[in-house]
Specification:
6 helices; Rossmann fold; six-stranded mixed beta sheet; alpha/beta; 219 residues; 29% helix
């Protein structure tokens, strides 16, 4: 059966300025459905800004985009149900437990039927003894594994991952890499920021480079 959306994401003429400083300059690109795509660039080149704009956290100065045919950068956030954003920094409520954070996350995405699976994933990702503790008791690595639960348990078509391997131990990285391969085979698309160019070259279908506010396909 022909895929209705061969390109999960299409971005056209995207621009972002901060105080008249150009961060993103007129970039256009498409991401093929089911691929693993890497994004490289120096610190401060605008990689995280790009992800925040796609995810709806930050609004562009100008530009258009679509995800599965739904308009990005609009007042309607219907498109958000199709994507998930893994920030480089923890985005959990410190006064809540890991379980409560995941439950809240799922409820906000209307993934109510997935709440019953939280304990199963906590066991799978070795957080069984931590899941009912407050986030302020978690190490950075444990919070990264909690993000892995979010990624594994929820419904999404496009994952925007900002340095997902950071702070995760070797076993956690192996789990994450195995999941990347499985999700790609399921038709999910993964867009990854990383400074590990060797890993990207080994695991990605395509690599983009953000440099001097412009986006290039890395050769």
């Amino acid at each position: 059966m022909k895929n209705k959306f061969p390109y999960i994401l299409e971005v056209n003429s995207l621009n972002k300025k901060f105080n008249n400083k150009t961060i993103i300059s007129n970039i256009s690109f498409r991401l093929k459905t089911g691929q693993i795509i890497g994004l490289i660039g120096k610190n401060g080149s605008g990689k995280t800004t790009l992800f925040k704009m796609i995810s709806g956290i930050m609004h562009p100065t100008s530009g258009k985009g679509k995800i599965k045919g739904k308009q990005l950068f609009s007042s309607s956030f219907e498109y958000r149900k199709h994507l998930i954003y893994w920030s480089h920094y923890p985005q959990f409520y410190s006064s809540l437990t890991g379980y409560e954070n995941i439950k809240l996350f799922l409820n906000l995405r209307s993934d109510f039927d997935k709440v019953r699976l939280i304990n199963n994933y906590a066991t799978m990702y070795e957080l069984k003894n931590q899941i009912f503790k407050q986030i302020n008791k978690y190490s950075f690595g444990q919070m990264q594994r909690l993000k892995l639960i979010q990624l594994s348990i929820s419904n999404w078509d496009l994952a925007l991952l900002d340095e997902p391997h950071s702070g995760i131990d070797i076993d956690g990285k192996k789990i994450l890499d195995k999941n990347f391969d499985e999700w790609s085979k399921m038709g999910k698309t993964i867009f990854i920021i990383s400074h590990n160019k060797k890993w990207l070259e080994k695991n990605c279908d395509t690599i983009f480079k953000l440099e001097n506010s412009e986006l290039y396909q890395n050769d």
